[in-house]
Amino acid sequence: MALKITQTRGRVGLRPNQRANLEALGLKRPHQSVIREDSKSVRGMINKVRHLVAVEEVAGE
């Protein structure tokens, strides 16, 4: 199972740990999407920035 993560809001005014989580997920600008494998660590990063991203489940590659 994989997750499609899309950044929905910008980074202006974010705390440094939230910026770091977006970078670790591979997101650099609004409306950019990445596909990551579903794991506990990825779910934890998504949880920290859940107000900035949209998540969809997609079929594995």
Keywords:
single chain, alpha+beta, 2 helices, 61 residues
Report on this structure.
This protein is an alpha+beta fold. Helices cover about 30% and strands about 30% of the residues. The protein is built from two helices and three strands. Helix 1 (about 15-25) packs across helix 2 (about 40-50). The longest helix has 10 residues, at about 15-25. The radius of gyration is 11 Å and the shape is globular. The mean pLDDT is about 95. InterPro entries: Ribo_uL30_ferredoxin-like_sf, Ribosomal_uL30_bac-type, Ribosomal_uL30_ferredoxin-like.
Q: Return residue spans where pLDDT drops below 50 for at least 5 consecutive residues.
A: none
Head-to-tail CA distance between termini: 8 Å
Q: What is the overall shape?
A: globular
> How are helices and strands ordered from N to C?
EHEHE
SS class: alpha+beta
Keywords: Ribonucleoprotein, Ribosomal protein
Family: Belongs to the universal ribosomal protein uL30 family.
Pfam family, one: Ribosomal_L30
Domain Large ribosomal subunit protein uL30-like ferredoxin-like fold: 3-53
Summarize the structure.
The protein has helices at residues 16-25, 40-48, and strands at residues 2-7, 33-37, 53-58.
